[in-house]
Batch of 2 targets.
Target 1
Amino acid sequence: MPMSKPILIIPNVYQLPALKPSCNCYLITGEKNTLIDVGIRENRDYVEKQLQELNLSISDIDDMIYTHCHYDHTGAGEFFSHSTVYAHPLCQDKLYYQEDYCIHALKYRIALPTRIPDSTLETNDYYQNGDFNFLVIHTPGHSDDGICLLDVEKKLLISGDTVFAKGVPPLITNSGSDASLINSIKKLQQYDIEIILPGHGKVDHDGNNTLIKTQENIIKRIQKNNKKTIEEAIQWQSTKY
Ligand SMILES: [Zn+2]
């Protein structure tokens, strides 16, 4: 399968096409080189090839950030032994215990992770690289350990598996819940967001509307299992926060 070239999203931000079923990987350049998610173990060569297109090598990746623990986001992490790896504290613990990831990896007969994050990022922490200043937001829902990275000034959201283009709601995996996901989407709706860089699928350029659609689609999904109307569900949420 031919490898596509890195896609420039905005200056210093690239999407690196990856071997399926890997997630989308994103590279932020500037002061240093930051890779956000790395894909399945077998994606290593893809990442290397994409980096070569940009005159970089695996050893040039200073920092790596995992949006959550799943194998399709973290599997190739072990090949980046010289990078500092960041993730939410729960993600760090879960990779250590091989919980959650382990279930998925075993299901697909994929090797277990060997690279545990070195450092943690929690809500209200900032991660900086050159002109980029990413606010970390814990966004449980798809899983319990997800984070989104938001550059408030650039209105740019790196959303992991929390938000996808056009508001397609993410799957709920064994540690997640729709209730948590709705709360996470509400947290994100406090900000003005234009570009969403999701963990799977296409880049979205209609961020605020996509968050509204995501919320509606989650409520529709919940409705299948109960008798609440959308109006009732929205009313219930408005009393909560
Ligand atoms: Zn996931």
Target 2
Amino acid sequence: MPDLSGKVAIVTGCASGIGAAAVRRLVADDAQVLGTDINAEAGQELCREIGAEFLQQDVSDRSRWSEVVTHAIDTFGRLDILVNNAGLVSGASIGEGSDEEMFAAWDHVIAVNLTGTMAGCRAAISAMVDNPGGASGSIINIASTTAITPLPTDVGYSASKAGVRALTKSVATWCAKQGHAIRCNAVIPGATETGILDATEKELPGFKAAVAATSPMNRLADPAETAAAIAFLASDECPFMTGADMLVDGGALSIHPGF
Ligand SMILES: NC(=O)c1ccc[n+]([C@@H]2O[C@H](COP(=O)([O-])OP(=O)(O)OC[C@H]3O[C@@H](n4cnc5c(N)ncnc54)[C@H](O)[C@@H]3O)[C@@H](O)[C@H]2O)c1
């Protein structure tokens, strides 16, 4: 298990799914964790149970980011890890619905998934450069296999996740060029058993079984399996990994579509 003792982490979207699993895993690996979520009730309850700090946050609210980072520094004295995990689907495809519906769905999913992730990177870097002992840190952005094989049924989600992938590489290389020991990597989950799939299942019955079958393992991921990759990237085990895409997809993107 990676040793995260002495490290301080922020995990967004901590109230359920992959974010909740990440908080559990990072705390188990001895990090001090501040979880945030737009859902205050569920986030608060989970963090209390696990022994993490909690703050309510809408990641698309720009001004809230500096308050969240300041809270982590005031509480724990430094910031080593940011997991930009909060995200949602829009359920809007390019040719359907009214313009009003399409643009509202697009603006919201881009604001949360992409702009929220960028705002998190920016706020975290400004704190990580001032860490006691010198600039250091690890940012983990949660993208999706839909960044590479997009969903015809959700143009905004797919585009936002492709954006997260490119954003990750830009952040990673900027930090490296500055000489900062701040890494930034993307975790690319395949279909994972969380509430986000339930939303799509409602629209498209049978979706879960269909996406499980895209993996040669023929199953969905357990969120704890994704959290294990997050903990590895958060640790000092991989100091030369930055700008990477870490697939946690049960081989879904590795198999020829004919098989
Ligand atoms: N489950 C999958 O199959 C899958 C696959 C690939 C990528 N992902 C990504 O993993 C991440 C976590 O999703 P999940 O699967 O655990 O889903 P989830 O719905 O269980 O969790 C998402 C969390 O984000 C929170 N959230 C939503 N909007 C927010 C906002 N504006 N500000 C702060 N918090 C907000 C929700 O309250 C929720 O707790 C997302 O970025 C998602 O796109 C999931």
